[in-house]
């Protein structure tokens, strides 16, 4: 009988996987959280320590560039130096069902507890429905005492934002984490919600680096953001040319 | 493993939580029942005695005005004086799934039975699809012998209303409550269904107060209703101005 | 903990509830099967012997003409004389979920087996998408040897009808019944699919009476069919008048 | 209590059902995989050895040309000669729910393991959204070492195709099969996605025959493909005539 969720750890039993903080960057609005977490993992050279599979993920395989099919999975990476010990939660999908979100998040927290996590950062995008210039990083916490630290790092608490709450793992990790005594901070980069948004991820990363007291080279992420800007400019020009063309027919 | 539903009682085991009647005001059409129950709780000074969390609630957290995230929860409050001992059921959400409605309602009734509830009032709105002046309070009961008492308090039994039955906890508490020997009365304030409707809640509260034989100061609720009236008037004026503008283009 | 399905039998253990045939008339297209089964029960004076409730029914209560709320339920009635012993399955709803259909039908068959059922008739409507004059009764069986008997009674086996199969309890009782060694015959009265169709029910009943070798007074059902005809004629006249009005504006 | 999935094997315990490879051709885009697998079974004279039924299939029966109703089922066929021993998985439906896909595929693999399967071929269509002349057979594998063999047989690995992954049993058999040490190759014939496409099935079969080193007479499948071509030509001619008619009104 297939398990609802399976967690496979790599390495031997004697490996020390203990961590202090967890950073979640699963897929979501504008892939803002996912890009930020994956960029950070890459820059730090984090190592994969576990894989999570579940019947709550969509019923399909993903095919990589080489034509090899893989079951959807979420992954746990780890990075440790003298200053920080971080567990990363990244992956292919969030749950496809409402109940699955609760059950998967509970499993993520089982892993976090096993590794000794004391604080969780969840990263995401905050869709505003239009293109924006000055990107704010909106925050929410699961304990009021965390607010000062968050504000000092450049994130803001905005009245009535996010109005509809925080949906999925980014929200439930704060809510269910609090019941296990873990501090939780959700950082959401503002984004249009229409495109993959590395620029918003970059703003998110600036706040997160400051909070963690570590510096992350953001060159690659800025490069992706620049490419996206060029792409958006072209799109705007094309739109404009199309409109002028239509007008010339009329005029 | 996360529980489907968790119920956490506050206080010590020696606390006397026994009640005689239960009043349900969960979210629904026009928030009519929710506003009425919450206003009553506030005026009476009811105290929270338990919280209910469930994987049948939407998979998200709610963020309060201070930026603190909370798991969705329903709550049990209690008020007792020499005349009445009331258990209130209020909260953030109803179930997101059909089966969840049955399972959650069964849990609400477990709590009610534990507290000794003999009668349940469920409060809701009855959406009619247009703005109304004279708001009726429509009733349904789970035992025919309750009808006279209900009619004497000003609620009405309207032929073929509600035609589609009563959906969610307000309905199932009557149906499943009957199987446990509890009297059940559902009171539904007529409402357009388009807006949050404190005016309808106020009408509901008038009937309920009379049935319970207690007086509730409805000043605050009337104030909210007045504010909503002003807001609606402005909306109508704006609509009218817009129509006149359009006509002036034509005329 | 609430059961997924509960079956409550009335009467004492010494009651003889044994039957030979089962007739299912749950809600469906045009309520054709439901009307036929309920009319037959009424004419024969069948008696209720059991009620079925389930979390697979929609999460609501139904309110009767007197304002009394009832949990949705399906019901088992029984009629027996020297010639026939019939178990009827009628009620408020079919399952709201796919899996629920299988699980509920399995429960219906548990009851049928307990009562000694050897043959099942399932009654339904066959929606054709337009008003029809000559109503055929389309049949399907779960054993080829039953076809001659069915054809002799006036029902027809129509190539490629029903093309999409038979959905819900009417179909699954045949399929799952076969695995328990029960004969199964599904009779479907043609109907537009737009209205409640007592005329189609009447045709269905004519075939069923002949198969069972009992006569059922169909006066009441014919009366309802006539009323519906009058209603449809009026509707047509109104449509025609409206069209003529529109034409007079143009001409 | 009805089982979620039931598997019924035919024959006696002493029967040797062992196989080396499995071919899956369940319903999907253009029925490309289904037609290919069923044609191959017929030409080889494969024999049915097991049937699978499940509450995850749609809640209905299918009615055959003779008017006999059958529960939806998937079927296991077997063919063996001196060169090959093949298990076929074909049938009426895939799962109706996301979780059901995982659980059913797990059952398919239990059967495969029992029969000794070492390699799985899953067959399907790859919908491109327009009619095509030169049909490619797109491939995906669950182990990179299988690619050369696949390419040598005429299938292609196309960058970013299929972009959205492979949904349903064709995908999950590769993903979950890998965890059991079985080789997996998915072959997808390009197809418009609008019609049942025997021509695409025929291309699929050519690749598969070559990989298996057996020759399959494809005359019948080509005949069906020709009939479909004639049908499509007629459709195009009718469309053209209709357009010319409309133009003659204007000109």
Report what the structure shows.
The structure is a homotetramer of 251-residue chains. With 251 residues, the first copy, chain A, is of the alpha/beta class. The first copy, chain A, has a single domain, classed as 3-Layer(aba) Sandwich (Rossmann fold), CATH 3.40.50. Chain A is built from six helices and eleven strands. An eight-stranded mixed sheet of chain A has the order 1-3-6-7-2-8-11-9, with helices on both faces. Chain A has a two-stranded antiparallel ribbon with strand order 4-5. Chain A is globular, with a radius of gyration of 20 Å. Chains in contact: A-B, A-D, B-C, C-D. Chain C binds chain D through residues 95, 98-103, 106, 139-144, 147, 157, 159-160, 162, 164-168, 171-172, 174-176, 178-179, 184, 186, and chain D through 1-2, 55-56, 58-63, 65-71, 96-97. Strand 10 of chain C pairs antiparallel with strand 4 of chain D. Chains A, B, C, D: It comes from Methanolacinia petrolearia (strain DSM 11571 / OCM 486 / SEBR 4847) (Methanoplanus petrolearius). Chains A, B, C, D: It holds the Pfam family PAC2. Chains A, B, C, D: InterPro entries: MJ1210-like (IPR004426), Proteasome_assmbl_chaperone_2 (IPR019151), PSMG2_sf (IPR038389). Chains A, B, C, D: This is Proteasome assembly chaperone family protein.
Brief write-up:
The structure is a homotetramer of 251-residue chains. Chain A is of the alpha/beta class and 251 residues long.
């Amino acid at each position: 009988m297939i398990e609802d969720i399976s967690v496979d750890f790599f390495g031997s039993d004697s490996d020390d996987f203990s961590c202090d903080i967890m950073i979640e960057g699963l897929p979501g609005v504008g892939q803002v959280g996912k890009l930020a977490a994956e960029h950070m993992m890459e820059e730090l050279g984090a190592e994969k320590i576990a894989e999570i599979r579940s019947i709550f993920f969509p019923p399909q395989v993903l095919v990589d560039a080489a034509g090899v099919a893989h079951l959807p999975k979420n992954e746990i990476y780890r990075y440790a130096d003298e200053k920080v010990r971080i567990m990363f939660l990244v992956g292919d999908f969030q749950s496809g069902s409402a109940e699955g979100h609760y059950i998967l998040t509970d499993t993520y927290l089982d892993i976090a507890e096993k590794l000794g996590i004391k604080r969780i950062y969840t990263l995401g995008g905050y869709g505003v429905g239009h293109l924006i210039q000055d990107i704010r990083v909106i925050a929410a916490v699961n304990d009021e005492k965390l607010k000062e630290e968050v504000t000092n790092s450049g994130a803001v608490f905005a009245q009535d934002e996010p109005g509809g709450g925080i949906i999925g793992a980014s929200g439930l990790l704060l809510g269910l984490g609090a019941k296990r005594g873990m501090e939780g901070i959700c950082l959401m980069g503002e984004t249009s919600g229409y495109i993959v948004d590395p620029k918003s991820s970059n703003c998110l990363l600036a706040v997160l680096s400051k909070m963690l007291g570590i510096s992350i080279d953001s060159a690659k992420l800025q490069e992706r953001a620049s490419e996206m800007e060029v792409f958006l400019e072209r799109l705007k020009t094309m739109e404009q040319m199309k409109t002028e063309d239509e007008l010339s027919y009329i005029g």
